Amino acid sequence: QVQLVQSGAEVKKPGSSVKVSCKASGDTFNSYTFSWVRQAPGQGLEWMGRVFPRVGTSNYAQNFQGRVTIIADVSTSTAYMELSSLTSDDTAVYYCATEPRYSGSYWGQGTLVTVSS
Amino acid sequence: EIALTQSPGTLSLSPGESAIISCRASQSVTSGFLAWYQQKPGQAPSLLIYRTSSRATGIPDRFSGSGSGTDFTLTISRLEPADFAVYYCQQYGSSLWTFGQGTKVEIK
Questions:
Q1: d(Cα B83, Cα B105) in Å, to the nearest integer?
Q2: Given Cys at both, which of A12, A92, A112, B7 links A40, Cβ 3.0 to 4.6 Å?
Q3: Which pLDDT tens digit goes with each residue over A51-86?
C-alpha cells in the first residue's frame, strides 16, 4: 500500500497560482497513477486530472484545461498540481488520490486552498 | 467527458434498512470501470467498490455493486450507524475520469 502526504494549507490572492505537492511512500511510485480531486465547501468531488509517473503523461478535465498542470517527480516520489488564474471559486480542499483497485484507493489528507483578496 | 447522475440526492432511512443508490452515465462506461466511495464529514473519501462489483479489501459484504453499460447501483444492506454518510460513484474507464454529484444517506 502507499501513504500520501500533502503540503500544507495555502492562502492565495485572486489571479495568482498555487502548487500543491503529494509525497508518496511505502510502495512503488511508478505502479500508480495519481489523480487530483477537489471539493469546494459543502460541495461534491470534482476530478481535475491525473499523471502517469511510469510514462510521464497527464490528462486534464475539460473544466481545467489550460489552467492546471499535474506532474510527477519519480526521483522524490512526489506528484504536484499547479492551478493558475485563481478565483474565489477555486477555494476548496484539494486531494491527491490513486486509482481504484483491490487494495483500495489511497488519498492524501487534503490541502485547503483559500483564495481571497 | 462522461457525466454521471446519481439518484436520489438524499436517502432518509433507519438502521437495519437497505439503501439503494443509482448512478447513470451519459455514455457507456468502458469495461465496467465504475467505483463507489463513502465520505464522512471532515474525511477523505474511502473506496468501497471498484470495477462495478468488486469490493475493496476490508469492505463488508453488506456493500454490493452491480450494473453495466450506463446504469449502476450501490446497495447497502442492513444499514449500520457508521454507514450514514455521502456516497459517490466515479467512472475511470475513459481517459478523463468523473464523479457523480453524491448521495447523502441520512438517519430517518
A1: 8
A2: A92
A3: 999 998 999 999 999 999 999 999 999 999 999 999
Residue B28 has, within 13 A of its CA and on its CB side, a CA count of 4
CB contact under 8 A, B90 and A47: yes
- B-chain CB neighbours of A35 within 8 Å are 97
DSSP, collapsed to helix, strand or coil, labels residue A35 as: strand
Cell 444492506: give the residue.
Answer: B77
Residues 54-73 of A with CB under 8 A from B: 59-62
Q: How many angstroms separate the CA atoms of B46 and B48, rounded?
A: 6
Contact of A89 with A96, CB cutoff 8 Å: no
Q: What is the pLDDT of residues A7-55, one digit of tens each?
A: 999 999 999 999 999 999 988 888 899 999 999 999 999 999 999 999 9
